[in-house]
Amino acid sequence: MRGYAVSDYLEIKYQSIELIKFDSIEEALKKLSFGTIDALVLDIGQASYYTSEFGITNLRSAGDVDFTYEMTFAMRDDYVLLRSILNKAIQSMPNTEVNRIKTSWISYKLENQFNKEIVVFSLIVLIVTLLALSAFLLWNRLLRKQVYLQTQKLEKELELRKSIQDELLAKNQQITNMNNELEMAQRELSNLIDLVPYHIFAKEKNGEYVLVNDSFIQFYGLSKNAVLGRMDHEIFSNKPVSFMTVFSHGDTDVYEQHKSIVVDEMEILDSSGKAHIMRLKKIPYFIWKTKEWGMLGVTIDITDLKHAEQKLEDLNEKLEAKVERRTYLLNETNRELELSMYKLQMKQSQLEETNLLLEDSLVNLRDTQNQLIESENWPHLDDWLQVYLMKSIHHLA
């Protein structure tokens, strides 16, 4: 027991024995009764009292450890009369009374001799052990050859297992390298996705986000930790109902029917309150980890495109108006040209008729000239009249 004088005595005398100290006699007796410890060193009086108190009946005294407590009464030096009375009372106590007191307090007897039952049992166990050992040796000699053969077989299997183990280690190293490469590829892919100016996100079938790029979180003024693992109604709780209706349009078709859809010309406010016209495409993809279909979303800002289209439409309308005006002017000019051509054709016809008349006149004049020249009156004409007729005929010719 801890704190008892016998504890120090045992540590010095029996150093080869493992000693366990207890704080209470009840705990020590129960450990001994249940076989948790092999023996307990305790004075016979306390052992008798506490085993009776706790109802322990399976313990016995095995002997002593050559340690004796010298019990005495102590009193003050000035109590001389009391000391004399006590000494006389003890000395006058009969042995029967002393034995009665011991019997009432001490129920154990010291046993130093061997127990015959234990000796017999030990001899039986020894004989059985020797017989078993002999049978084992005989059986061992009969199976030695089989053991040798089995040993060779096991050695071959061991070599085979070792080669398989080496292959497995090599494959494990390959898998580790592939995992490292895959992890690097995933990081590179994530970096590339973050560089894309479009809003890219991915959601599982339950609507939880598993991927967003920097463009997405910067547009909405969020962080990745505030988005990943959450749903639309948690992330966009400050958005109007109309936004949620448009943004979640077609999700069921993507998850259930595995169809790609496009939500066009959505008007969304960014984190600064500026309006943008967006085009959202939702694409189904299969998640091998959960064996379910998820959704990949790509949102493109088409605000500048729409403004450019509007400007193009305005320019197209202006161009159509100008073309229409030019066409009208060209038609008018064409009609004027056709009229001028008609007038020219009429004048040409008139000129041709005049030319025919002149040709007829010329023929007549030549005939007249020839007649005059042949006539006898030609010499009698005045010189100026002859010259005039010659010039007229030459001019007409």
Structure in words:
This protein is of the alpha+beta class and 397 residues long. The chain folds into 3 domains: 5-113, no CATH class; 114-195; 198-301, PAS domain (Beta-Lactamase, 2-Layer Sandwich), CATH 3.30.450. 62% of the residues lie in helices and 10% in strands. It is built from 13 helices and 5 strands. The chain has helices spanning 5-13, 25-33, 44-54, 80-91, 95-105, 116-195, 214-220, 224-227, 232-235, 241-247, 251-257, 303-374, 383-396, and strands at residues 199-203, 209-212, 261-269, 275-287, 292-301. It has a 5-stranded antiparallel β-sheet with strand order 2-1-5-4-3, with helices on both faces. A hairpin with a 4-residue loop joins β4 (275-287) and β5. α12 (303-374) packs antiparallel against α13 (383-396).
The gist of it:
With 397 residues, the protein is an alpha+beta fold. The protein is 62% helix and 10% strand.
